[in-house]
Amino acid sequence: MEQIKIGMLGLGTVGSGVVQIIQEHQEKISQITGRHLEVKRVAVRNVAAHKDEFKDIELTTDVNAVLNDPEIPIIVEVMGSIQPAMDYIVQALENGKNVVTANKDLIAQHGSELVKIAKKNNVDLVYEASVAGGIPILRTIVNSFAADQIEDVKGIVNGTTNYIMTQMVTKGMTYQAALKSAQELGFAESDPTNDVEGIDAAYKMIILTQFAYGTNVKLSDLTVEGISKIDAADIKQARTMGYTMKLVGESAEINGQLAVSVAPALVPLEHPLATIQNENNAVLVKGAAVGTTMFVGPGAGKMPTANSVLSDIIAVTKNIILGTTGNTFNGYRQKAELATPDMVVAPYYLALKIPDIPGQLLKLTHILTEADTSVKQVVQTETDGEYARVVVITHKTSLAKLQEIQKEIKADGAISLISCYKVLEASK
Ligand SMILES: NC(=O)C1=CN([C@@H]2O[C@H](COP(=O)(O)OP(=O)(O)OC[C@H]3O[C@@H](n4cnc5c(N)ncnc54)[C@H](OP(=O)(O)O)[C@@H]3O)[C@@H](O)[C@H]2O)C=CC1
Ligand SMILES: N[C@@H](CC=O)C(=O)O
Ligand code: NA
């Protein structure tokens, strides 16, 4: 049987999973593609660290030996970060090689540039593993939503933070211990800052926005908040009110304009996202024709992510055989403006520190009323005699009105806002 030789950049969590699947499932892959896949050469930083585990594979620190090998038609980039990965991918594409990558940082920030280079060189550039790890969400949007009009994409798209929050809530683990465990399990990025600050999820929402609406947005177009500042008191309080807390990404189409965000949100316990635990991810895609669909699965980890990389390798292999490489992964292009804060509406949870003296709650009600925002629920959760902690859940209000409320509270001086989270509606 003819061979397809693969060159790889990186042999860490994902890379080692890719090698394992190719070795263990060679027979099935050959039957499906009609080709024998062989990992010919892998570039790493430290050959000695891998040579005992990967005796049958040629390891090198010379990236050019992978990128310039005329026998290799497919390069798998699983090393991460922007540079030098960007230069290596450009070099591979310009050398006429198809590229499979799991690198969301790179695709979210330089995807359109790389797509153009791939097209010019008539090669594939595919990156299913870059969003929601093992969930085949990108190809599903491309294939199964091609004729539908997507109205909303919402979900949990970072495995590390969902794992941390699950461990904190269900096992009482500390934030630091849960993060350490996520790193040991291979879920976190090599520098976990992007995970915990919501940036990794934001990159994934940028890619999902491109696939769902055909529109390129950049990081500065999104509102992004991570989990590092979440107060355990809010998680507890939310639970008593019938909510759990999740890091939620949303890309919504509002009258033809887009609102893309990542932030911790209160999720009603009966909402499908409330049941997503540990490193699992879930993406809800709402189409005008199909309604709401949900895709669930592991969002991080060696084998699930490697399986997505393999789905790309197999798609590219088929294209090589058919002579159909060079088609853009997602061909949909559409220009759209960003929604303004007055267009983006949701209920909000506000936790406030209020002097425990008469008239203060009235003052808060006045601020909310002035911003045309009504209250659904209000609870005084504790008092130390001097200050009370008061939690308010509003009815739907716009982001512009919320900003007005935040400004007025700040100006008041006596009342202070401890935290503020969006509240998901049970039916959405
Ligand atoms: N882990 C996960 O669950 C997921 C990861 N991803 C993405 O997949 C990619 C890889 O992640 P992961 O496997 O976790 O990362 P790891 O840190 O586990 O592995 C990175 C690998 O790349 C190699 N490498 C790094 N820099 C260079 C360089 N300059 N030259 C040659 N080799 C280099 C490292 O070599 P050495 O071993 O010698 O240090 C290592 O083998 C990232 O883009 C990540 O965002 C996507 C979805 C899920
Ligand atoms: N660090 C990422 C890995 C997958 O993309 C995550 O935790 O989701
Ligand atoms: Na995926």
UniProtKB/TrEMBL annotation:
InterPro entries: ACT-like_dom_sf (IPR045865), ACT_dom (IPR002912), Asp/hSer_DH_NAD-bd (IPR005106), HDH (IPR016204), HDH_cat (IPR001342), HDH_CS (IPR019811), NAD(P)-bd_dom_sf (IPR036291). Pathway: Amino-acid biosynthesis; L-threonine biosynthesis; L-threonine from L-aspartate: step 3/5; Amino-acid biosynthesis; L-methionine biosynthesis via de novo pathway; L-homoserine from L-aspartate: step 3/3. Keywords: Amino-acid biosynthesis, Methionine biosynthesis, NADP, Oxidoreductase, Threonine biosynthesis. Its cofactor is a metal cation. The keyword Repeat does not apply. It catalyses: L-homoserine + NADP(+) = L-aspartate 4-semialdehyde + NADPH + H(+). This is Homoserine dehydrogenase. It comes from Agrilactobacillus yilanensis.
